Amino acid sequence: MRLRERVGSNIQAIRRSKGISQEQLALVAEVDRRYMGKVENAENSVSLDVLEKIAKALDVDPSVLVAPPR
């Protein structure tokens, strides 16, 4: 699994486990909802700045978003 896929998968899994919609996450992270969807689907890579915003919005350490699956 490529890192881009791992990050997208981790974001999606954490978001779903917290019962947050993609639109809500995008709003809190201050990114476009369409972009968030593309990040989750590994269509776009994410900058470190945006990764940090998403992690903050999910209330997790950024390292969790790049961690290998368990």
- Under CATH at level 1, the class stands as Mainly Alpha
H and E order: HHHHH
Helical residue percent? 55-70%
* Total helical segments: 5
Gyration radius from CA atoms, angstroms = 10 Å
Low-pLDDT parts are none
Strand tally:
0
Shape: globular
Under CATH, the topology is which?
Answer: 434 Repressor (Amino-terminal Domain)
Q: What is the percentage of strand-forming residues?
A: under 5%
Question: Structural class per helix/strand content?
Answer: mainly alpha
Q: Give the oligomeric state.
A: single chain
Query: Averaging pLDDT over every residue, what do you get?
Result: 96
Terminal CA distance = 13 Å
Description:
It is a single chain. The protein is an all-alpha fold and 70 residues long. The chain has 5 helices and no strands. Helix 2 crosses helix 4. The longest helix is centred in the N-terminal third of the chain and has 15 residues, at 3-17. The two termini are 13 Å apart.
Summarize this structure briefly.
It contains five helices and no strands.
Itemize the secondary structure elements and their pairings.
Blueprint: H1 3-17, H2 22-29, H3 33-40, H4 48-58, H5 62-66
Helix pairs in contact: 2-3, 2-4
Task: State the main characteristics.
single chain, 70 residues, mainly alpha, 434 Repressor (Amino-terminal Domain), 5 helices, 0% strand
